[in-house]
Amino acid sequence: MTAKRGESLLWGISASSGIAEGKAYVLNRKKTKFAKRLLPRHLVDAEVARAKDAIERSKADLMRLKGSLAHDEIHEHIYILDAHLMILEDPMLLDSVVEIIQGQCKNAEWAFSTAFENYKRMFDSVNNEYLRERKSDFDYLLGWILSHLSGSMDEVLSDLKEKVIIVSHYLSPADTAQIDREKVIGFVTDIGGKTSHMAILARALKIPAVVGAEKATSEIAPGDTLIIDGMEGLVYINPSRETIKRYRERRARFGNLEKALLRDRDVPAETLDGRRIVLTANIEMVEEANSVLEYGAEGIGLYRTEFLCLKQGKIPTEEEHFQVYKSVLEKLAPRPVTIRTFDFGSDKSPIINHLGLEPNPALGLRSIRYCLKEVDVFKAQLRGILRASPYGKARILFPMISGPAELDRTKAIYEEVKEELRVKGEPFDPHVEIGIMIEVPSAALLTDVLAKEVDFLSIGTNDLIQYCLAIDRLNKAVAYLYEPLHPSILRLLRHVVEAGRRAGVEVGICGEVASDPKYVFVFLGLGLDHLSMVSYMIPWIKRIARMSRYQEARELVEALLQSSRCETNEAILSQWIKERFPDDFQRDVLRAAV
Ligand code: PEP
Ligand code: MG
Q1: pLDDT, tens digit, for every residue of 425-457?
Q2: From ligand 2's centre to the CA of 399, what distance in Å?
Q3: CB neighbour list of residue 18: distance below 8 Å, 6 or more residues apart
Q4: Using CA positions, which residue lies closest to atom 3 of ligand 1?
Q5: Please, are residues 521 and 274 in contact by the beta-carbon 8 Å criterion?
Q6: pLDDT tens for residues 90-149?
Q7: Buried (b) or exposed (e) across 146-172, using 16+ Cβ within 10 A?
Q8: Is the pLDDT of residue 24 over 80?
Q9: 148 in active site
């Protein structure tokens, strides 16, 4: 037996929160090796039969798996297995494999690998994380087919004997679907992003997961002790005693705290001096709507519908829009569901081809601008939302509005859609509230004008900070400039909140900073009515609001607005928190949540 190496650390992407400690179970899901052989002509027909047989067996496996999904939570993810089946059933696949075997006399393994590489190449030019993820579906299917060709099937995850953390190059949805939840306590993968199916399933199953850790399978040996920190995206390999102690304490604290906080999930987010703030969830996938109420969300404050297209690989039809929104509205009723119309562009430019080609996509024909150009696409979505509106409390949010002319045009189209539905006799809720994202500096400066035209405002700090400070939010090299406490941002936020209040409309924030514990005080003090965030942070943010005083938060904001530098603001905020929250419990809530 070799001696264990000392502690080392891998950074990945946090895909599912929580902390797990356990032994690594390294799965051999790397690219399956196979021999490339040229066949004598007389063996070609037999090779074609072998290829067909491998497809049939793989299809049978998938069908069997579909019928025996291990967990109720993931039944709705059957579509992933259906997508795999569709690929296997696609005549193009068999045709191209047969053509390669017959035309080039390559063995079946080689032919499948070439055919899948061709499929994958079609996704290469896609400037979109979710669709790029779909390339791993082909790797997975190739691995499966190759196992059938070689007769050596992968290990089966349902046969695990002890509790383990699975480490793999990637995990297929079928892998995830089979796992024994009692035994698998965490996942680490080399590749994948937040929107990979595996990440979505890990969140649905509440299993901590770190994806995209790049070197996980080469750095981690079977049996290594691991600690994975699903909140920070960290993987400790053979952690030191101190690290183990620190994380055990943190996990115990985090677990107990979370339980305690979840008991309060139905109490309002209200400060000690009676200021109420509404806390809602951001969702990207319909499936996420199931769990938001467990965290005490008062509704959905941002439903990023462009992810619908990423999932389907096409723009949904009106009927598809209707069905999806109806199901989310029914789940949440009577709580509000804020459905944001398509916000394609920048990192979310899936199937809209021109977007990937624009020299400056963040400033290009994106979001509402795209919808105002492709009016049919926009109208189909609006019809879908309105038709679903009788099934709950729908609100419509328009992204990237930059000024009054754009808002006028948007509202005119919305009115046309309502009129068309009236003429057709389609029922809809005539009182659906409409709002706009404030995420372009020009809109922020014109809040007084725009607020008169809508029912609510939702500040998109992700983009507002990007556009105001001129920093690409996707560019790691300038990430250090992304400062929510920048004096210009604070002034802009103050301006928006006050103009919104004067117009009598609700003002909220739905950018990522809304879930950062330390900024809660600033947002309270600025007078925001509503914060919308990733759902698992709601209990923490609620507790922080409940241990704060609105009056003090207002004084904090006054002090911050006097300063002209970010560093000073950070220092003022840290000191303010230290002075006000001396007790361990409060500090834990502020720290453990981060
Ligand atoms: C934002 O810009 O802050 C926002 C919430 O929208 P998105 O992150 O989808 O651009
Ligand atoms: Mg935005």
Answers
A1: 999 999 999 999 999 999 999 999 999 999 999
A2: 7
A3: 206, 207, 208, 230, 231, 254
A4: 460
A5: no
A6: 888 899 999 999 999 999 999 999 998 888 877 666 655 556 666 777 877 888 888 888
A7: bbbbeeeebeebeebeebbbbbbbbbb
A8: yes
A9: no
Q: Which residues, by Cβ under 5 Å, contact ligand 2, an ion?
A: 439, 460, 463
Q: What is the Cα–Cα distance from 225 to 64, expressed in whole angstroms? A: 34
Residues 6+ apart with CB under 8 A from 87: 93, 119, 137, 138, 141
Instruction: Quote the pTM value.
Output: 0.73
What pLDDT does residue 32 have? 61
- What does DSSP assign to residue 40? P
> Do the beta carbons of residue 548 and residue 291 sit within 8 Å?
no
Structure tokens at 277: 């703030």
Under the banding of pLDDT at 50, 70 and 90, the label for residue 181 is confident
* Tokens 């925001």 found at: 528
Catalytic residue among 77, 197, 321, 530: 197
Element (H, E) at 115: helix 108-124
Instruction: Label residue 205 by pLDDT band (50, 70, 90).
Output: confident
Angle, CA of 396, 493 and 557, to the nearest 5°:
135
Terminal CA-CA length for the chain: 39
Indicate if 197 belongs to the active site: yes
Which among 368, 437, 532 is the best mutation to test ligand 1's pocket, defined by most ligand atoms within 8 Å of the CB?
437
